[in-house]
Structures are given as structure tokens and as C-alpha cells.
Design goal:
homodimer; about 220 residues; mainly alpha; Tetracycline Repressor, domain 2; 11 helices; about 65% helix; globular; DNA-binding
Chain lengths: ~220, ~220
DNA sequence: CAATCATGATAGTAATACTATTATCTATAA
DNA sequence: TTATAGATAATAGTATTACTATCATGATTG
């Protein structure tokens, strides 16, 4: 199944999905950010890599922060899309929460193709770079430009599932954002700062899932 | 009570605590990072602000990333110090966990003076910038240089308290790091991206404390 | 009094993060 | 078929950042 994800036009100057060069920019950005880290990634290096010029890249994105934003918003949109797809027929909230957790640890087989995007590398970028989007001095402007909408939508969607499970749960939004962040952070920690976790790097997905579901259900079941 | 916090010499080229200029660098960095955000903060601006030269600042810190690291490690060290101080006489793990949570939301009165450091601004910097220390491409080298030791020590200390409360708890480290991160993130979200939380900005400390203690005790009490 | 150490003053470099201008090439609409 | 609009390439240039190097000065210490 091929999907085309449409993102908020605020995220780009020129839609990268609409041209070969644009798709190339996305594809190679993902590869290069994965390889170099966001800090060392530059438009100049990217341009050299795909045999175009810096100026051409600037026609698509104002700067590299916006480009990262595009990529990560693509991820959130895709996640919500998947979540809706997998939970569409399932009426059982427990099962829906488990599906969510599987998605968050990136365990489910992907049903959607988007040829120029490497999902593995994208996931990797999200775990290590996504915080940089909002922990800035310009959060408020960016927020007004709706740059975090896909993330907020996903969290809202998750909070609804929590409230299906426990109608009177007071912290559904905070739990949603915490669960998402924790999934990514703990994965990163397990790999690079293992003493901050209780996981074995080799069994990370299984153990992290256990932790996340322990977290979600402990909190949702606590009637105090 | 005046405290002097000694940090790992890997964090600086020349100990900023040992000179007027050094202390000035720390003091004004905190103010400027708070005001400009880390991205826009530069050694040039800092030097201009305290009437010294860029070159002089470089004699203390290799670069601004290292300076941020110094500041944030100061915070973690100070936090652990406080935690030990407040829980030293208290044998009750429940109470210790509550003390921890109060510290994490920055609610307790500070017993320690360190004249050139503005604690409020420091806390603010930690909530919005601390992730940038480890979410880099050079985590591993930095980790080997022991740049995260104070944070890891604090989390370990917290995990011990969790295990005092529940001897057989399997996720004490992950819960510790999650709780710390969550305290900061939710605070930031409540302020700038409130739809990711369930908190009222004006009652943030009370409500966040409720959430964090709900989280900690739900998880620690869940015997499944 | 000599030595050394910290800071200041000044200069310079490579890389980054852009902006601007003009030329070329291509698709399509008149 | 030709005109033209639109996209990209080629090239150049600027301000700022993130440093490094050198030398002078002034304070401290042995």
C-alpha cells in the first residue's frame, strides 16, 4: 500500500513531494542526519551529496531546522495513520493500548510504502533528534505556525484511547505525551547510557514494551 | 549554608570556581542562556557582556557545549546533594519519594547558597536545554569522559529509594530516569504546549506533583 | 627581583548559514 | 511551433560563528 503524506505547507517553501529533487532532498537528509547527527548536518554537505547546489535546497526549506521539522512531522503523521489503521476494527481498549506500544517501540511490520523514506533511519532520527524541535527559544512562534500539530494530534488520539479504557482518568494527555517520550528516550538510553535503564540492549524491544505497558496500565488502573 | 560544588575536571579547561572571571562566566552564561536560548548564545556575546574577550572565555571552556555541560552537571550534583540532605534523617521511603518529587518540581526552599548562581534561571535552563547534552552524535565519547556521571549518580540514588519502597521492583532505574525527565518535560509542555498535558499553568507545581506521585506509586505498587 | 601566570588586545581562519544574480533547460499552453 | 513560465544550476558574495595564535601587560608568588 503506497501512502502519500501531506503536510502543513508552513513546513516547507516548496513541497518536496512534488519533484524528483524534493524527494531526493528528503531521502538523503534522512540518511545524512542519521549518519552525521543533526548538528553536523549542513545544506552544503547535503547538496554535494545529491549533486545539486545549496541554493536549490534553500528553495525547498528555509533552513535545516525546518527540514528536520518536516521529516519528524512526517513521522508523527505516519504514526497516527498507522495507529488508526491498526485500531480501526478493534474495539477493545486494552488491545488498542498494546498496539500503540508496539508502534512506539517500532515493532510492527509496516504496511505502508513510501519509497524514498527509510523508516529505520527515520525512527532513529526521531529517537535522538525530535526533542530539538520544541526545546528552543522559538517554541511559541513555531507552535503558532502549527509545526507541532501532528504530534499534538497523535497525543490527543492516544488520550482518547486511555479514556476509553478508564473514563474517569484525569491524566490522559500527560500520560500520552510521557509514554511517547519515554518510549524514545528509554530506547536511546538503553543503547548509549544503559545505567539509566533496566534493559538489556539485545532484548530492548521486548523489555521496553513490558515497561511501557506496566507504566500505562499501572497508572490507568490505579483508582486512588 | 554555603556550598562549593566540585565538578569533574573533564568539564572545564580551567576551573571557573577559582577566579573572579570564571565565576562571572558561569553567572552570566546562566543569565544569557536563559534569555537567548542555547542556540543563540555565543562566547562572543558572553565576552561582550562581561567585558572580557572571547579568547579568555575559551581558556575556561573548550566550547559552549562544554560550558552548558558544566552548568547542568552543577545542577545534578546540587540536586543529589539536596536529596541526600533532606532524606538523610528520614527512614520512611514514602516520604523520601515525596521529597524527591518536591525537588524535581523545584518546590523546596533551597538551603544552600552559591552566590553567583541564579537557581531559578538554572532550573529553567535544565528543563529546556538538558536533553541537548546527551542527544548528540558524540554521546559515547562524552559518556566516556564521564560527562553524565552526576545525572547517572542521581538516577541511581533514586532507584535505591524505589527499591527500599519495593524490594522486588524490576524497573527502578528506568522509572528513575523517566520520572526525572517527565518532571522537566511536563513543566515545559504545560507552559508552551499545554495540550500535551492536563495541567493548569497557574497550578503547575501542585498538579505536576500529583501526576508524578501518581506515576511513581502506581508503578511501584503494581504487584503484577 | 625574577619568574610565571592570568588576562587583555588584536588578528586571522575555516566553516556555517544564508542571499542574490544570471544562465540554462524543460514542460506546456497559445 | 513558438513563447514563456517555472525550475534548477552555476557562481559569487556577506555576516556570523567557532575557533586558534601571538604578543603585551599587569598581578602574584617564591
Amino acid at each position: 500500500m503506497e501512502i502519500q503524506i501531506r503536510l502543513n505547507p508552513n513546513l516547507y517553501l516548496k513541497d518536496p513531494e512534488q519533484s524528483e529533487l524534493g524527494r531526493n532532498i528528503i531521502k538523503h537528509s534522512i540518511e545524512m542526519i542519521h549518519e552525521l547527527g543533526f548538528e553536523s548536518f549542513t545544506f552544503k554537505k547535503l547538496a554535494a551529496n545529491i549533486n545539486t547546489t545549496e541554493a536549490s535546497v534553500y528553495r525547498y526549506f528555509e533552513n535545516k531546522h525546518r527540514l528536520l521539522s518536516y521529516i519528524i512531522n512526517w513521522y508523527w503523521t505516519w504514526m497516527e495513520y498507522q495507529f488508526n489503521f491498526y485500531t480501526g476494527n478493534v474495539k477493545n481498549p486494552v488491545q488498542n493500548i498494546n498496539i500503540l506500544i508496539s508502534l512506539l517501540v517500532f515493532e510492527l511490520d509496516d504496511q505502508f510504502i513510501s519509497s524514498h523514506i527509510s523508516k529505520d533511519k527515520l525512527y532513529n532520527i526521531v529517537t535522538s533528534e525530535s526533542n530539538k524541535l520544541y526545546f528552543t527559544h522559538h517554541v511559541e512562534e513555531d507552535n503558532q505556525a502549527r509545526m507541532f500539530k501532528p504530534y499534538k494530534d497523535l497525543c490527543h488520539r492516544i488520550s482518547l484511547v486511555f479514556n476509553e479504557y478508564n473514563t474517569s482518568y484525569r491524566f490522559s494527555h500527560s500520560l500520552a505525551s510521557t509514554l511517547v517520550e519515554t518510549a524514545h528516550h528509554q530506547q536511546f538510553f538503553a543503547r548509549y547510557l544503559p545505567s539509566l535503564t533496566d534493559f538489556d540492549k539485545r532484548k530492548i524491544k521486548t523489555e521496553l514494551k513490558a515497561f511501557l505497558s506496566h507504566m500505562a496500565f499501572s497508572m490507568l488502573d490505579n483508582k486512588k
